[in-house]
């Protein structure tokens, strides 16, 4: 049985480590991909847990919101991995809003939690985030800006789910004579 406080602490620590590696700034976007089924020890899509989704999303918001970093929550393949975001974020970034409301078996528990805790939630099909965490191997790479760099958080599992993370960096161009800023 997964313990709420332990999971919240692990999520908080993981997000803080990714932020330290990614050097995000106010206005950047952080994407979450998560299967609560695997967090609770089940198989992806077979044991969705709305309470666990709520714990994860609210823990992330507690870290990101004060920094002015936008949270995008990726849904499952049944909604084409669309992301729940705040309407203001979608509009400011020019992301096309699509018409779907996440549910337990089409979007998942974390997407549902985002809809509960965001001020004015919408779904967008494509985003460009600067970093993110993938809890349960849900494939967030399509939503992280090119060039993607793996981040290795100290928490390699949250509950029963494998954890990976990505950050992005600008492309290196110019060849042998070019000089690059430290990022």
From TrEMBL:
Q: Which InterPro entries match?
A: Antibiotic_NAT-like (IPR028345), DUF436 (IPR006340)
Instruction: Enumerate the transmembrane spans.
Output: none
Pfam families from the entry? DUF436
Similarity field? Belongs to the UPF0340 family.
What's the protein here called? UPF0340 protein FC07_GL002252
Source organism lineage?
Bacteria, Bacillati, Bacillota, Bacilli, Lactobacillales
């Amino acid at each position: 049985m997964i313990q709420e406080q332990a999971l919240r602490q692990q999520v908080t620590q993981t997000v803080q480590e990714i932020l330290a590696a990614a050097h995000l700034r106010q206005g950047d976007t952080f994407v979450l991909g998560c299967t609560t089924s695997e967090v609770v020890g089940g198989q992806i899509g077979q044991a969705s847990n709305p309470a666990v989704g709520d714990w994860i999303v609210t823990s992330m918001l507690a870290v990101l919101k004060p920094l002015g970093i936008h949270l995008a929550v990726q849904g499952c393949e049944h909604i084409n991995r669309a992301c729940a975001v705040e309407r203001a974020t979608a509009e400011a970034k020019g992301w096309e809003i699509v018409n779907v409301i996440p549910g337990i078996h089409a979007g998942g528990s974390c997407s549902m939690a985002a809809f509960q805790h965001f001020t004015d939630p919408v779904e967008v099909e494509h985003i460009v985030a600067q970093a993110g965490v993938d809890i349960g191997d849900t494939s967030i790479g399509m939503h992280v800006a090119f060039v993607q760099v793996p981040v290795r958080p100290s928490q390699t599992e949250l509950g029963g789910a494998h954890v990976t993370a990505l950050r992005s960096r600008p492309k290196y161009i110019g060849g042998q004579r070019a000089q690059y800023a430290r990022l």
